Amino acid sequence: MPAYVLRYWESEFKLLRPKKNPAGQRVYRRRDLELVQRIKTLLYDERLTLEGAKKRLLAESRKGTEQLQFGLRDHVYSDALRRIRERLTTLRTRLNG
Fold it and tell me: What does the alpha-carbon distance between residue 22 and residue 81 come to, in Å, rounded to a whole number?
């Protein structure tokens, strides 16, 4: 992609924020490159408008975050419940013995 297109997309898509090195040059990480490829696909292949592409990316990013958080919460809750169950069992044993 030409540099001017990337700069324009950076101004339009808030998710696209490459880091800058000390010299002020942009350093694109794998995540940034994947996002550029996704934007290109949405705009050129799927022929979405800028607004349509923004909405799609926002929906996709929210969906991924919710799934990740839900899985993490499930794991944290199950560990907490296991620890509580163990403590209650220990307490019951002490009270009965």
Answer: 48
